[in-house]
Give the backbone structure.
Amino acid sequence: MMFVWLVVAAGLFSAGALPVYRELKRQPKPKATPMAQLSQGATRYRWYGDPGAPVAVCVHGLSTPSVVFDELAQELVLMGYRVLTYDLYGRGSSSTPKARQTPDFFAKQFNELMANQDIANDITLIGYSMGGVIATHLAAQNPHRFREVILLAPAGMTSVADRPTRWAMATPLLGDWAFHLIYPRHMSDSLKRDAESGTKAVSILDEQLAELGTRGFVGSVLSSLRGTLRHKQEATHRKLAQTNVPVTAIWGREDTVIPLRALGTLTQWNRNARQVVIDGAGHGLPHTHAVEIADALADGY
């Protein structure tokens, strides 16, 4: 009997240690430049365009770093913007601070980066997916800083998690263990489907696969799910609607991550928001339909 219990205990220990072992095998953050040294860690950023042009700042989403904006940034430069992209904490080459990843957490990174880059006001703020939550939060808190807010397939209107993920989000410790064990395979399988269907550029798929092999990434995804994506953003959108900041929301008609019904929800929360739907676009619209996004923005002027 003692032997059986020892076998069971060994099995439980092995299962419990597996996520830790996998995390230790992952690679440290890749070194990159330029980097801004902020109070919570280093932030990788990149500028595009003429230094004298009006500034547009792009905030990416949950699982893909700022490379997701490369195509769109080039289109925005052609429209006359100077564009700043950066990696959120826990993604790309930016640091992974040990802190709950809430909208306030990401707002602090944004505000410190703006100070580091000597950017004060008159910012066109572009938020994609989870970045839409961050952008809305920033603009609602300090509307005087922003010329306009552009939301690309923004999260915050509907749940972005399936039932097992919602359980992990709501369950400390055991949920952490399960998420670290299951999420990498889930994301890897999803990326394989994207590769087979051709819905994402190869460069984006490569970046996301690289993220899976980077230390701290999986924990950052879970922290953001808990701290930023777990709750709907009705109060924040209604607060932003009371300001004079113009809001444009652009959606992909074929988006299965943020379904099109979210458009109707946003309309209820901010009736002044301009809404645009791009036919044939899925959730990867910043890199798959960058020209169409630029055309939609140009039509709004």
